[in-house]
Write a structure and sequence with these properties.
single chain, 425 residues, alpha/beta, two-stranded parallel sheet, 11 helices, 13 strands, binds nicotinamide-adenine-dinucleotide
């Protein structure tokens, strides 16, 4: 009896355990089934536009993918940057292609010295002479000139550059001398008036003495400033000028007048072959950013979105010649037999106010035009009489103002971008 009772208890316990196991198993199975049948909802996580990490607490697959893509993008960009740097450094190492240079025979090829050849006008003259096939030596102290202006010739067999101040004598053998070394814009020549006078007197004597010693022809770059604030209009070469000998511009005006005087003295006394170019306002690429004269002032003010400032009433006139026209004139004058001064300039005259409006239109900005105090001794009218140049050199300016100004505006736009990239203002 007792045995039967124990057996019953054991059986009951067994059934109860089996029941429990079944319940647990079923519950587990249901849970796992749910897990398999329900696909995890992967929300599409978009990267916030500000570049910060998505504000989603779930670390989902999409988020991980986004992180990987972002890292790959950063890696790719840095590899591209390194490759670009490499390309730049390799390009710098390769020889530069020079502009096309004509071949001249030994007899036809000249050795030509250009003083001030790293300056605005000088560097364009260097381009022309080398491309004609001549050998050019530049002498410059880099006061206002820049090595960048002639950088494209460095290493060329027909080009040489000497860093020297022409106030010191120079001993070289040359066939022709273009003597251009002198600051040309008022802020530059007024910066050190004594030095400006020395450059135009002692420097010119040194160049004339060199021409005498080696039998070279020499062209002196004089200026329309020898006419001062002229009383006759337009100005022919026969006009003696109206210059204030002690005014703020006299270091330049009188310096150039002495240059002409010296040239004539050397021609008369030592039979040196001299040419004298009286250059009027010239503009074009490679003008100095701080030139301070009207063309660069107006263009830079317009490009910088500033007020275009006109000195005084703006009725004073100027004529503007594009630099390549001047170079044609200089080369023609050197080749001619004409030994008296020759005006080289564009006779088309503009009032400064008209010019300001024109620049504003070409730059395409809406800058205001304002006026500021008139400058002391500022010439009121400037217009060359170019009858002699037309007759003796068969020369006259060809480049229309709009074409020349557009090239100059493009140049200043690039210079401005470059200076901003390099951290200048
Ligand atoms: N640009 C014009 O509108 C203009 C008008 C009239 C006359 N000019 C004459 O043309 C010539 C060139 O003018 P630019 O506009 O090219 O001027 P610029 O200032 O650009 O060039 C003059 C060059 O002469 C160099 N220089 C100055 N003093 C020197 C010295 N003591 N020794 C050696 N080098 C020296 C400068 O570094 C510069 O490279 C000047 O003689 C100037 O008087 C120019």
């Amino acid at each position: 009896m007792v045995l039967i009772w124990r057996l019953r208890v054991v059986l009951q316990l067994l059934c109860f355990s089996l029941l429990l196991i079944a319940i647990v198993f079923l519950a587990n199975g249901e849970f796992r089934g749910k897990e398999i049948s329900q696909k995890p909802v992967i929300k599409e996580i978009k990267a916030p536009v500000d570049g910060s990490e998505p504000k989603n607490d779930d670390i989902s697959k999409a988020y991980l993918r986004w992180k990987i893509d972002k890292k790959e993008l950063i890696d790719a960009k840095s590899r591209i940057y390194l490759l670009e740097q490499k390309v730049k450094s390799l390009e710098a190492k390769l020889p530069k292609p020079y502009p096309h240079v004509k071949f001249l025979s030994y007899r036809a090829k000249k050795r030509i010295l250009v003083t001030g050849g790293a300056g605005f006008v000088g560097s364009h003259l260097v381009d022309r002479l080398i491309m004609q096939g001549h050998e050019v030596i530049v002498v410059d102290n880099f006061f206002t000139g820049s090595k960048r202006n002639v950088d494209h010739w460095v290493g060329h067999e027909n080009f040489e550059i000497i860093h020297q101040d022409i106030v010191n004598p120079l001993y070289i053998e040359v066939d022709e001398i273009y003597h251009l070394a002198s600051p040309a814009s008022p802020p530059h020549y007024m910066y050190n008036p004594v030095k400006t006078i020395k450059t135009n007197t002692i420097g010119t004597i040194n160049m004339l003495a060199l021409a005498k010693r080696v039998g070279a022809k020499i062209l002196i770059a004089s200026t329309s400033e020898v006419y001062g604030d002229p009383e006759i209009h337009p100005q022919p070469e026969s006009y003696w000028g109206h210059v204030n000998p002690i005014g703020p511009r006299s270091c330049y005006d009188e310096g150039k007048r002495v240059s002409e005087s010296l040239a004539f003295a050397y021609a008369k006394h030592y039979h040196v072959a001299v040419r004298i170019a009286r250059i009027f306002n010239t503009y074009g690429p490679r003008m100095h950013m701080d030139d301070g004269r009207v063309v660069s002032n107006f263009i830079l003010q317009a490009l910088r979105n500033k007020t275009i400032t006109v000195y005084g009433h703006g009725n004073q006139t100027r004529s503007f010649q594009y630099v390549t026209d001047l170079i044609d004139g200089l080369v023609a004058l050197m080749a001619s037999n004409y030994t008296h001064p020759v005006n080289l300039g564009n006779p088309v005259e503009y009032s400064i106010m008209e010019f300001a409006v024109y620049i504003k239109k070409l730059v395409g900005r809406n800058n205001p035009i304002g006026s500021t105090e008139a400058v002391e001794d500022d010439p009121q009218r400037r217009k060359p009489d170019i009858t002699i140049a037309r007759k003796t050199l068969k020369w006259e300016p060809k480049v229309p103002l709009e074409e020349g100004l557009m090239k100059t505006i493009d140049y200043f736009r690039e210079e401005l971008a470059r200076s901003l990239n390099e951290g200048y203002t």
